[in-house]
Here is the input.
Amino acid sequence: MDNHYLKLAGQAKFVDSNVTKFNEILKGADGQKRQFGLVGAPLSKPSISHSGASFAPGAIREAMASYSTYSNESGYDFKNDEITDFGDITMHPTDIVASQERIFTSVRDILSREEAEFHIVLGGDHSISYPAIKAFQEKYGRVGLLQFDAHHDLRNLEDGGPTNGTPFRRAIENQVLLGEDIVQIGIRDFTNAKAYDDYAHNHGVSVHTMEDVEKGSIDELIDKEMSRLAEKVDFIYITVDIDVLDQAYAPGCPAIGPGGMDSKTLLQAIKVASKHQKAQAIDFVEIDPTLDFRNMTSRVAAYGIFQFIKAKIL
Here is the structure.
């Protein structure tokens, strides 16, 4: 006799027939063209500190299940706006550079399929941004970068090679990005060496510290910088290093510290930036689910994805 109360292990959960969870609109790559595409880059071996960021893509997808697809603020339900989930890129077990090259070739392959208009990349540590941006630059031309971060990530490559502290140094030195096309938001006191602050200014990077963020309107700051970038570049890539947040909002971050941004400000900034036409890709990096508390940090990233999607559709 059938018992409709018995479910497969792990599936005996409460279901509200009126609610669609955001993870339910993730669809496997099937050749269909959708507005949004998502890919995971689970690489954390290049981190200069202990990091389990390789587990973040799965944790962020899981965190998406904590939210419904309905936006109370707009009165719009995103349940029919499917996202193509291209899956996770397989990393080389020992070779960091080979893993980064796999990210480049995989993102390049996804772009060549032209199955998504806007792209979401889930790190991994911040080293994944360089190969991803390189793929977008090859496809679209001159790329501008809006970087939310406590750090410049302009460390030299001589001391440690291509780590999570070097992605934008590599991008500048390999002519993937021009320094003048990089905007850094949320750079924090006592987190960077003078040499890297000097490097940023000498290469024309637009640097906005946390003090700058706190002094004015985040909407005005983001609008100003996005409009300036849009006049020069063909494509804008947003990168969100979760350590831009104060440690109170991001316990699952390897480089936590006080004096950072609150989550509401970051989410608002992502929404404002994503409204710009040339902002067509975003990544979320430096989340370590093994350090997190109740998935708090991954939930911020998931909400950031929703802000990106919301800004593009509405």
Summary: The CA atoms of residues 43 and 124 lie 5 Å apart. The chain has a mean pLDDT of 97.
